[in-house]
Specification:
The complex is a heterodimer of chains A (158) and B (772). Chain A is an alpha+beta fold and 158 residues long. Chain A is globular, with a radius of gyration of 15 Å. Chain A has 5 helices and 5 strands. Chain A has 2 domains: 75 residues, Ubiquitin-like (UB roll) (Roll); 73 residues, DNA polymerase, domain 1 (Orthogonal Bundle), CATH 1.10.150.120. With 772 residues, chain B is an alpha+beta fold. Chain B has a 7-stranded mixed sheet, with helices on both faces. In chain B, strands 9-19-18-17-10 form a 5-stranded mixed sheet. Classes of the chains: A alpha+beta (158), B alpha+beta (772). At the A-B interface, helix 1, helix 2, helix 3, helix 4 and helix 5 of A face helix 1 and helix 18 of B.
């Protein structure tokens, strides 16, 4: 079926089977391999993308659900080669080790910060608890989200 | 963009791979596809032990979109893989030995067809009685997992002995005895096993694969499939986690076989999560019997251990894992008399192999519980007991090896001892709320680094001045997330004085980089780093020497290598590196250097059964402290605070160092509290993240990492490996904290709420009957 949606700010029209998984469309059909797959069952969060401002698991979404949606993947975060504040914070804080959970973490964190611009660490932990990481022990990821929140709210105030 | 900087040793240099990973640009093996792609997948045994009568592939072959269905008959070589023992078939031939054994390989045009085809394959089995644990394997009349193996189900039996345990242990003033058991643990890396391969018109096989050992993979494939190793090229990009689970063949031989039947098309294989659990490697389950003897003042005198490791259906690195466990069985303590006996056993359970803390995580639980039991028995402060017995340089360890290198366990313990979390523990414990009990527990642990004797721990570094004047490091040892590539980036920057933007890193590729061993044994930065230092120093001398000719310098003393150029300090003349590169031949722009890790001199007269991997020269050390709260009503444990003091030589990058400490503690906490592969007759009951629980962001406390630096003269800039030691601390530290909180004696892991509640109730009912 023909499906029209917005991907990282650009209107896309694709032809896909209605039951094709969105993670496969992104990775295999559109070459956007930044979105990862770690379980295919909605348990690890590696495939998280944004639908509007909401984090969604692309391994549990089907093509037909894409119609008319506004999708953001990790590839849509940086603008003109400039890293997003959250990406800078992840790199700077040491929140990245193997990096395979990182894109999903970033998308979940981004959605969270949009709703909660001044979170405490406990709230960040809760928000990220659906994204599994096996390398970091999470502490530096929490640091990164906290740093990004401060930087982003500083930008708003200035 | 951030300003360019010169990566240097000792600074918290951001990871060289971070920018590409946060943008999604970094390509892992899983991210490779390609035009006209085929998908490959496997029909697995599904039963733990049985003879194969027939494999019916007709229905699958007739399915439209299926390109090939292969069985053992289609495997051209020995059809055997394995790092030390070649006992594991690529495709099972006469029998299957665990549920995850691969029996047939399917190539299909798409994933849906592949799934359907695999489900259409039927296998006729004659089921055999199974060996489902240590006791089964030890029965004298037990059915053999490997009929041809001379030792029956004993893969390896070995002994480490020093002094005279038989005479001294019974004479000790205090003798304590206990049994401990630990389950299989899964690596649970987020990128499951995968790769992509194709056959070139020349017949050569090219493979991009998520692997910790690209150079060894060629031998595995070559041996199993009868292909000369120079006809195999392995490319090993950054891994989405490894932790030991990608050290050894996973998809490699299957994929190479698939590529041989794909007519030059690319073939991709990517295990799903269930397959990762069923067919992937595990940390060994183990049973550990300890008898420890001491003087009344707490001086350790004698230790007798009997260690049993369940290696599952195939040897993999089982014997070597057990050897390392045995070498660490006495803890980081001085014990003059030791007798450490080990049995590594074949069963019909999943295959166990390398995992961070390689055999050591298991024994750490036992020896550190024994130390707390001894401290309680003698009424000695547990930290004083440990400090009193801590190994010092010059002491003999429990394997009878004299420690000649940096040995920082006492320094780690002293660091913990003066910390407020230890000093103020009584006050903190007394503040527990109703129905909560608080406890504080310690663990002193260590972990060898490097391969040990019998296998040269070698790396070959290559560094190049590129045509455009950049420095390119050809890294031959995989970065699975541990950050060795960043250390190489720092070493090149430090020696060659170039900015981050002018340093390039090539990841392992058997056609472009040189054999540098596996990403394992906490060795990557140590061994490759040492080789790289020499290569960079050689290149530096070479570039300055060549520049002298151009700049008319009559001595190289007056020349300085600076970012992007070489300057003659007397005349002020400069030559840009790009211009210098253009004047040099390709061959001249390269430096290559090999480093082989030093080994123990004067090997002790024990542990003769070990083929490789015994004994070790270098150890990293750590002391951990866990502050826990146990809910008396549910048995649930909450870790409130966690502290780790770690000695791993000098710290080259504080950020990378702390990453390793945090990550290893988190995996250790999973091992302590919730992780266990549940098995019923060899079948995994929890092959997914909904039922095999790894810690989430809500389960790991804020961790404090204290580096306790020592200088290791043999290490690059004085460092030792830090990748594994932290994994060994959490289980014993948390178990000791729980024991402190509740007055119980945890002897098995994980410390689930059910287990602890049962132990608490049992203790209460015993106390109620008037026993102490």
């Amino acid at each position: 079926m023909k499906i029209t949606f917005v991907l990282n700010g650009i209107k896309k029209e694709i032809d896909a089977a209605p039951d094709r998984r969105v993670v496969d469309i992104l990775r295999e059909d559109l070459g956007l391999t930044g979105t990862k797959e770690g379980c295919g069952a909605g348990e690890c969060g590696a495939c998280t993308i944004l639908v509007g401002d909401e984090p969604r698991l692309s391994c549990l979404m089907l093509a037909a659900q894409l119609e008319g949606l506004n999708i953001t993947t990790v590839e849509g975060l940086s603008k003109d080669g400039e890293l997003h504040t959250l990406q800078q914070a992840f790199a700077g804080s040491g929140a990245v080790q193997c990096g395979f959970c990182t894109p999903g973490m970033l998308m979940t964190a981004l959605a969270f910060l949009k709703k909660n611009p001044h979170p405490d660490r406990a709230a960040i932990r809760e928000a990220l608890s659906g994204n599994l990481c096996r390398c970091t022990g999470y502490q530096k990821i929490i640091d990164a989200v906290e740093t990004a929140a401060r930087t982003l709210s500083g930008k708003e105030n200035s | 963009m951030p300003r360019p900087y010169i990566p240097e040793i000792g600074n918290a240099t951001p990871r060289a791979d971070a920018a590409a990973k946060v943008t999604g640009a970094e390509k892992y093996a899983a991210d490779y596809y390609g035009e006209n792609l085929l998908w490959a997948g496997v029909k697995r045994a599904g039963i733990p032990h049985g003879l194969i009568r027939a494999v019916h592939t007709e229905k699958a072959k007739n399915l439209p979109g299926v390109v090939a269905v292969l069985t053992a008959r289609d495997v051209p070589g020995t059809n055997r893989q394995g790092i030390v023992h070649k006992d594991q078939p690529v495709l099972a031939d006469s029998k299957v030995r665990h549920c995850g054994d691969a029996v047939a390989l399917v190539l299909a045009e798409d994933k849906d067809t592949l799934r359907n085809a695999v489900s259409l394959i039927e296998i006729d089995f004659e089921p055999l009685p199974g060996i489902f644990g240590i006791d089964d394997a030890l029965q004298p009349d037990a059915p053999a997992v490997h009929e041809e193996h001379k030792g029956g189900n004993v893969l390896l039996q070995a002994t480490i002995a020093a002094g005279n345990v038989k005479e001294t242990l019974p004479e000790c003033a205090v003798v304590l005895e206990e049994n401990f058991t630990v389950p299989f643990q899964a690596h649970a890396f987020i990128e499951t096993e995968n790769g992509i391969a194709w056959q070139e018109p020349s017949g050569n096989i090219v493979m991009v694969v998520s692997t910790q050992a690209p150079f060894r993979d060629r031998f595995e494939i070559g041996h199993a499939l009868g292909i000369p190793i120079n006809n195999i090229r392995i490319i090993g990009p950054y891994l989405g986690g490894g932790f030991g689970g990608k050290d050894g063949a996973t998809v490699q031989c299957l994929l190479a076989l698939a590529a041989m039947h794909a007519g030059g098309r690319r073939v991709k294989m990517w295990w799903n999560r269930e397959e990762n659990f069923v067919a992937g490697y595990k940390r060994h389950a183990a049973r550990l019997h300890y008898r420890l003897g001491a003087k009344t003042d707490g001086t350790l005198e004698a230790l007798h251990c009997r260690l049993y490791y369940d290696t599952g259906a195939y040897a993999h690195l089982g014997g070597e894992v057990m050897a390392l466990g045995m070498e660490h069985a006495g803890g980081p303590y001085r014990i003059p008399h030791t007798l450490i006996e080990g049995w590594c056993l074949y069963t019909n359970n999943p295959v166990a192999g390398a995992m961070r803390g390689f055999g050591v995580a298991q024994v750490s639980f036992a020896f550190e519980r024994m130390m707390d039991l001894l401290a309680a028995k003698l009424n000695i402060d547990p930290i004083e007991l440990r400090i009193k017995n801590a190994l010092q340089r010059g002491d003999k360890n429990c394997a009878g090896v004299v420690l000649t290198q940096s040995t920082g366990i006492a320094a780690c313990l002293e660091e913990i001892k003066k910390h407020p979390l230890w000093q103020d523990r009584a006050a903190w414990k007394s503040q527990a709320q109703s129905f909560k009990k608080r406890g504080v527990g310690l663990a002193a642990v260590f972990n060898a680094m490097g391969y040990g004797r019998g296998l040269p721990d070698s790396a070959i570094a290559k560094v190049e001045l590129t045509e455009n004047g950049h420095i390119r490091v050809y890294n031959g040892v995989s970065d699975m997330g541990q950050g060795n590539a960043t250390a190489f980036f720092q070493i090149a920057g430090q020696i060659l004085c170039q900015e981050n933007t002018a340093i390039e890193l090539v990841q392992p590729d058997t056609a472009r980089t040189f054999p540098s061993g596996s990403a394992s044994a906490s060795r990557t930065t140590y061994t490759y780093g040492n080789a790289l230092i020499k290569a960079c120093e050689d290149l530096r001398q070479k570039l300055i020497g060549r520049a002298a000719l151009v700049l008319f310098a009559d001595t190289t003393q007056d020349l300085e290598l600076l970012p992007g150029r070489i300057k003659h300090l007397i005349s002020g003349r400069e030559i840009p590196l790009k211009q210098l590169a253009a004047m040099m031949s390709e061959q001249d722009r390269i430096s290559i250097s090999q480093f082989i890790m030093p080994v123990v001199r004067g090997v002790p007269d024990t542990g003769k059964e070990f083929v490789i991997g015994f004994p070790h020269l270098l150890f990293s050390h750590a002391a951990h402290l866990a502050c826990v709260e146990v809910d008396e009503l549910t048995g649930a444990v909450e870790i409130r605070k966690y502290l780790a003091a770690t000695e791993a030589g000098r710290v080259l990058n504080p950020q990378s160092f702390e990453q390793q400490i945090h990550g290893s503690i988190a995996q250790g906490i999973g091992y302590a509290l919730c992780e266990q592969v549940l098995l019923t007759e060899g079948n995994i009951l929890n092959p997914d993240f909904a039922t095999y629980i790894i810690p989430t962001s809500c389960d790991i406390p804020e961790m404090i990492s204290l580096p306790v630096e020592a200088y290791e003269p043999s290490g690059p800039y004085g460092m030792k490996g830090v990748g594994e030691v932290g994994t060994n601390g959490p289980l014993p530290a948390i178990a000791n904290a729980v024991a402190d909180a509740c007055g119980i004696n945890p002897t098995r892991s994980p410390l689930t709420a059910e287990y602890l509640l049962h132990s608490i109730k049992q203790k209460e009912s015993t106390a109620g009957k008037g026993h102490s």
